[in-house]
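Tutorial, part two.
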Amino acid sequence: MLIECIPNLSEGRRTDVVARMAEVVGHVAGVRLLDFSFDASHNRSVFTLVGGPAAVEQAVLALFERAVADIDLRTHRGEHPRLGAVDVVPLVPIDGVSMADCVALAKQLGASVAERFKIPVYSYEEAASDPGRKNLEDIRRGEFEGLSAKMAEARWAPDFGPPAPHPTAGASVIGARMPLIAYNINLATDRLDVARKIAAAIRHSSGGYRFVKAMGVKLEERGLAQVSMNLTNYEKTPIFRVFETVKREAARYGVAVLESEIVGLVPSAALVDAAAFYLQLERFTPDQVLEKRLRSPSNES
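Running the prediction step on this input gives:
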């Protein structure tokens, strides 16, 4: 049984703190830390780990313990929206588990986090308690600074835990979803207004692609504007389509694309699709990828 878990934590500047969080995950038996990355502009770190349900739960609770000790949102500043020290914990079914299993684990984790750390927890995506809490951006709107006022409204009572934010760790969002790709495109400009206009043009909530969530941010230390995205279904809205659209939209404002980046891990099929598109490969199939063929069972007797 394998579940992928991608905790997002509100720390991306103090490398020693991020290293300690990675270390606690590495000490949990039955969990493999596949990747972790951190970004100073966003002031955020993203961990990707896999394991069985019990081991994943233990690893997430260990991350919460470390984050509560090391992160104080009262002094936290960064480009990425956040409402918690451990901001969001998505669970993704990989092998031998169903989405229902991940939903059950998300709710179990929410109850455990609330009880152990006195942190309010919201359930989202497939674990959402009602349709108004399915989308992460709706739950996170107002961020940590607006959380006390938001939670005073009855409709924003948490699914688990106290009715007010933790004083330093805020609140957390835990849920279950299908795989997504965290994808950013950096523009060759510092114009935040251009990045925001492009994000509005491509994201689903404002009339863009169905499986794109996007926002415009500024990378202060590099003097660049960025279109930061989550691609929630790379098969129906592939990376190359998003890249080409951003490039065309940027050109309308006289701006070029400087580079793009993938945060965390990405399914190989998404990159193969991009290669096939840009190389204009004729009659190409994924079976022509050497590594894929090597992993396939032999047809020889």
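The two ends are 31 Å apart (CA to CA). In part three we will examine how such features are distributed along the chain.
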